[in-house]
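User: I've been trying to design a sequence by hand for this structure and keep getting stuck. Would you show me what you'd pick, starting by listing the structure so we're on the same page?

Assistant: Good idea, let's start from the same input. This is the structure you sent:
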């Protein structure tokens, strides 16, 4: 017979197995994060070219200057025909323009009979001619060449948008000069329609010719070859170079490509053209530093300030790179070829063991709703379901149980430690620490379930952020309100009770607060973050290095500490909701798997001790005001 004591020991044992296995995986993850400390500082090719021309410095000399300052490479967007034309390297004519030229000079290009809708290209340099012809032939049908002109003439049907956007390779001369200056090259490949295998083969050949190739990146919203990503991945793997993924820039097909390339990925952070006017150099340096230290970014794409006048921008640009390098070194990173985190140990057995911790937590929840025999039967069914799901769909199993973990353990912690009795200050603080420890167990089990490079590199992510925030806010108040009695009778009594205006106003206020809270989860609503909070965040970053979450140390922990101190009753349901938010935030901090685990641990530590201090201040202030009001009332 399954006694209550045996049932509890089984649940605790399962939690212990899951927790220990998670800790093993997390130690491996922390070791991989510790060794992944090299960051690329990438310049923009167009800006480098502008500085070179304005200051009359050869690209190799300029590159060496930036190399000495701390730059490691140059991000070079694939050239278009429009780019080559603007640089004076080619002459691009429509069929009408070439026809008019032949009318005015009948003896010119006699071997060419212009076609009205075609484009005609004359190229100054022979090597550039061959490169452009090869690129166009691989990506377009109907490309022809003649002997017209000093190096020949290319003819094809080409729309105006293709002149502006179709990639036709890179400037070999500029790449060589940049490489001579000590900087690596990071190409940004443009896409083209219907990328067949022959054109993808040509892409790899193009990349093989790039001197000092460091990363492979893509320029457009979809990568080339989305219809045949396995073939593209197989070809790119031959180069043994990482793929660069730009943060906050979704590119169709790129995640699939990265997974097929064994997650050989480097995450890149950049400041967009729209955001550049909103930044100063200091703010930009801080942004790069934060991205590298807290979001597993290992390459930063740098755009210079003051480029409206490139002739006077050089010295400031060099100093800017020096500041970025110094900021990275201060955080424990070095400027160099981007590093990729090592793989973590993985097996379904390890994942299965971690998942047992979630089942153990589930058993503790079930024991409060059902008898041990029925709860045990449900737990057994859960075990069989976990094993089956892990066998059929490992990724779905891991993500589903990760979500359950961050829901179950905060619920356990709060319902186990919250009661109606008043505590001493010491008892209340200890209860809050125990509650947070139980929530923390759920966070650690979740990190064990998602201990994988695909989550560290944000190729995949924790699913169900909103659900994880909402369910505890609903389940815990309902349980606390109706526990210790007949559920239906309590519900009936509540529904037949009077509804006062103050109840409506209070409910509306809480509803609005919760809507704002849910909207703010995931950093998807920056407009809801006030200037005072931004200033507070900056201050805490500077003072503590890693800032705690505002909703933990200013809202959740103080509210929960006060609730544990004074004891819960129905009048304090708003305080309960705010207290739940702190525990939810604690576990969901660790759902950001791309954030180094040590950073998340530091964030939680700061949030807890600052939250306890804020809670103590809240209690002292409340007691003072209560006593003052009592004395005023007695005096009257």
């Amino acid at each position: 017979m399954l006694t209550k004591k045996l049932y509890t020991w089984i649940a605790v044992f399962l939690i212990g197995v899951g927790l220990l296995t998670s800790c093993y995986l997390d130690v491996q993850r922390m070791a991989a994060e510790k060794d992944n400390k090299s960051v690329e500082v990438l310049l923009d090719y167009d800006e480098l070219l502008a500085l070179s021309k304005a200051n009359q410095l050869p690209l190799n000399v300029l590159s060496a200057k930036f190399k000495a300052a701390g730059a490691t490479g140059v991000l070079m967007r694939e050239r278009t025909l429009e780019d080559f034309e603007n640089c004076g390297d080619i002459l691009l004519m429509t069929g009408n323009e070439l026809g008019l030229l032949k009318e005015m000079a009948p003896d010119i290009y006699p071997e060419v009979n212009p076609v009205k809708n075609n484009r005609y290209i004359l190229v100054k340099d022979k090597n550039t001619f061959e490169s452009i012809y090869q690129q166009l032939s691989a990506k377009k049908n109907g490309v022809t060449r003649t002997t017209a002109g000093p190096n020949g003439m290319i003819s094809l049907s080409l729309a105006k948008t293709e002149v502006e956007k179709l990639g036709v390779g890179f400037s070999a001369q500029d790449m060589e000069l940049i490489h001579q200056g000590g900087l690596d090259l990071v190409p940004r490949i443009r896409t083209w329609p219907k990328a067949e295998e022959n054109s993808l083969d040509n892409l790899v050949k193009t990349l093989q010719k790039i001197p000092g190739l460091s990363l492979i990146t893509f320029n457009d919203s979809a990568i080339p070859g989305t219809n045949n990503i396995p073939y593209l991945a197989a070809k790119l793997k031959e180069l043994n170079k990482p793929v660069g993924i730009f943060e906050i820039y979704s590119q169709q097909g790129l995640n699939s490509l990265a997974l097929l390339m064994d997650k050989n990925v480097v995450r890149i952070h950049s400041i967009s053209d729209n955001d550049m006017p909103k930044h100063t150099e200091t703010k930009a340096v801080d942004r790069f530093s934060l991205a590298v230290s807290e979001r597993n970014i290992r390459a930063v794409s740098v755009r210079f300030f003051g480029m409206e006048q490139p002739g006077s921008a050089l010295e400031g640009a060099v100093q800017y790179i020096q500041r970025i390098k110094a900021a990275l070194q201060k955080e424990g990173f070095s400027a160099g070829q981007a590093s990729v985190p090592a793989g973590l140990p993985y097996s379904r057995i390890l994942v299965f063991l971690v998942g047992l911790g979630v089942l153990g937590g589930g058993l503790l929840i079930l024991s409060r709703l059902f008898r041990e025999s029925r709860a045990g039967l449900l737990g057994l069914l859960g075990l069989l379901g976990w094993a089956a799901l892990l066998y059929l769909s490992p990724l779905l199993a891991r993500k589903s149980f990760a979500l359950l973990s961050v829901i179950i353990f905060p619920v356990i912690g709060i319902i186990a430690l919250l009661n109606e009795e008043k505590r001493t200050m010491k008892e209340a603080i200890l209860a809050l620490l125990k509650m947070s420890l139980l929530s923390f167990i759920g966070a650690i089990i979740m990190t064990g379930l998602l201990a994988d490079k695909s989550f560290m590199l944000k190729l995949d992510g924790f699913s169900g952020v909103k659900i994880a925030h909402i369910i505890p806010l609903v389940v815990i108040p309902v349980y606390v309100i109706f526990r210790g009695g007949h559920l239906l009778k309590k519900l009936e009594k509540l529904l037949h009770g009077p509804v006062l205006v103050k109840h409506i106003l209070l409910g509306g206020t809480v509803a609005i607060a919760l809507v704002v809270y849910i909207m703010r989860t995931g950093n998807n609503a920056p407009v809801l973050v006030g200037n005072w909070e931004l200033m507070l965040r900056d201050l805490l970053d500077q003072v503590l290095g890693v800032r705690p979450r505002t909703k933990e140390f200013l809202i959740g922990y103080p509210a929960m500490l006060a609730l544990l101190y004074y004891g819960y009753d129905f009048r304090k349901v708003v305080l309960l909701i705010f207290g739940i938010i702190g525990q939810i935030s604690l576990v969901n901090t660790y759902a950001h798997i791309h954030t180094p685990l040590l950073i998340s641990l530091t964030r939680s530590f700061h949030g807890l001790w600052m939250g306890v201090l804020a809670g103590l201040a809240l209690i002292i202030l409340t007691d003072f005001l209560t006593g003052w009001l009592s004395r005023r009332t007695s005096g009257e």
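That's my pick for every position. To get oriented when you compare it with your attempt: The chain has three domains: 40-77+172-340, 79-169, 400-635. The mean pLDDT is 88.
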